[in-house]
Every structure is written in C-alpha cells, then in structure tokens.
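Incident review: delayed structure delivery

Summary: a single-chain prediction request sat in the queue longer than the usual turnaround. Root cause was a stuck worker, restarted by the on-call engineer. No data loss occurred. The affected request and its eventual output are reproduced below so the record is complete for anyone auditing the incident later.

Affected input:
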Amino acid sequence: MNVRHAISDDSVAIFRLVNQLHPSMSVEQDAFQYTFELILQRSESVCLVVSDNENLLGYISGNVRPVLIQGGNVAFIDEIVVESGMRGKSLGTLLMEHFESWAQLEKCTLIGLATGGAKSFYEQLGYQSKAGYFKKYVG
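Output delivered after worker restart:
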C-alpha cells in the first residue's frame, strides 16, 4: 500500500469516498471540488490518500493551527474514510500513522478529532476522549 499527498487528479475518487463517510451527509460535486482545491493549496491543510497503486482506497484530511492553551500547534483530523470493502485491513491505521508523522513535522503538540461511531478505532491507536463535540450551522 502507498500513502501520499493527494493531488487534483484524485478528486473523482475522493468525492466517491466523501459520500461514504456518513449516510445522513452528502456534498455536491461543485462544492466538493472548490473545497478540495482549497485544501490542496493551503500549507496548513493536508489530504493524504492510500492506494494499492491502481485504486485510491481511502483518505484522511485535516489541518494545523496554533492553539493558545496548548502553547503551540494542534492538528485536527477532519475526515478519514476507507473504501467500505477495504475496512478492517489496517488502511485507516496506516493513514492515521502518516497523519501523525505530518503533525510532528508541523511541530504539533496534540492531535484532535471528533467521531460519532469509530471510538474504539481511535482508542486502539492511543487516543482518549476528553471533551464533547458541539456544532451549529451558520450558513
């Protein structure tokens, strides 16, 4: 398996995976494409993909920003998706390891994320639940 930074040509495969993330959520192609290109352009954002050299099988995206209470940079994982037929084959773990390496290069002191249903996956990787997650749509 190969993990690398996403490129523009990955957009079709990632769009397909995005819509596997949560059954109650979907994104329009134009909105996805605009956001995907922003992520690729911003130095504080990352999108990594895993492939078998023929097919893109999963991705992880996130960003880094300074956080006062941490006294340094914190990385946040926004999304991680593995192709439904490839789950349970350690691809998610591989993506997480590469994201953690990226966060270390960015001098992060912490990685944060929110999850609704993959709690045991993250706990197996050493993550601990420390706070609740709230959201409010404003637009």
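Verification: The mean pLDDT is 92.
Action items: add queue-age alerting; document worker restart procedure.
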